[in-house]
Amino acid sequence: MFDRYEAGEQAILVHLDFPDENAREDLQEFEMLVSSAGVNALAIITGKRTTPHTKFFVGTGKAEEVAEAVKLHQANVVLFNHALSPSQEKNIEALCECRVVDRTTLILDIFAQRARTHEGKMQVELAQLRHMSTRLIRGWTHLERQKGGIGLRGPGETQLETDRRLLRDRMVNIRKRLERVEKQRQQGRRARTRAEIPTISLVGYTNAGKSTLFNIITQADVYAADQLFATLDPTLRKIEIEDVGRAILADTVGFIRHLPHDLVAAFKATLTETREAELLLHVIDISDDRRTENIEQVETVLKEIEAGDVPQLLICNKIDALEDIQPRIDRDDTGLPIRVWLSAQKGIGIELLFQALAERLGKKIVKHNLCLPPSEGKLRGVFYQLNSIVDERYDEDGNCLLKIKLPAREWDRLIKLSEADIEGFIERKQTDILP
Q: Is the pTM of this model over 0.90?
């Protein structure tokens, strides 16, 4: 129906400045998006308006300038750094006599190129179908042609109605398959919750360095590149954190200003990992001049996916691109880590990140030295079942000296359910038993 334009097309870029901050887009970021899509930009046409023009978005004179640029450079596509209505796309296409793509369609196109897993491809297709359903009216020239023929004459079903029905059926089918994927994810989350395994989710503006950081922490080989939306498919890996034990680290898709709502809706299952995480690692490209705006945009998207209240640890990445910045941990008034300065590319400051994670997540861990008499072999077996024994020795009287580490929830449950006086076995002079 709408063939995605092939990478390598010749394009004219159109960008307008608006006084309203909510309608304003970034030209440099738009050029990076175009480059990520594999499109060759021949010329950039800019202008200023207070409000979008109803018919052409850019105004009559500017629209004619775009059409002249298309003919001059022999471009075959016009890319707008804004969201266009279906009628505006249709009018500009008629004037320029070439394909017109708005910002939302461009981002969807990049996502379609990046999707690698079956789930990711389904999510992108669903987002494309949502967006396409509003643009059917300009996609055909024969929409009102009735089905007919001998024995089949009558009102019938218009081509537009047929296409909409096919789209609806396909969208329903994809939603059902994504629901099955979501149920599988929920089962995995419930299993991790029962096992007291915390989930840490990487979030941040696109191209902030999340995948590079993910790779160096987990020794994984997730695709990482200096381009927008290099990562699309979610990846989960186990990591070991001192005083915490096992944890799950999730690498997620990068955010961008004015992220299309179709994408947010389609990636709901993926973003659930972010919403239900114990801690968010908000990765920031500290060398980017627009870092403050990028942080605000990430916060906006987090609120949209109902993850605005999840605790965050800010990761100031790419300190190697700045002068006189050393890796460090910034803390709040209570001493809690709130910011880590590092370079994922150079591997600088990674040990500080693990230290901060241990402090942020380790508060739920209980550590004790226990002195169990020989009669408490059953209780010793329980600690082994919980995989909570760090060290074990015996004294001259046959007492078992245990150094244990386990989640506070499990410790409280043991005290409540055990017939033995577990707290009575705690050796108050902890350092006298085990180092």
A: no
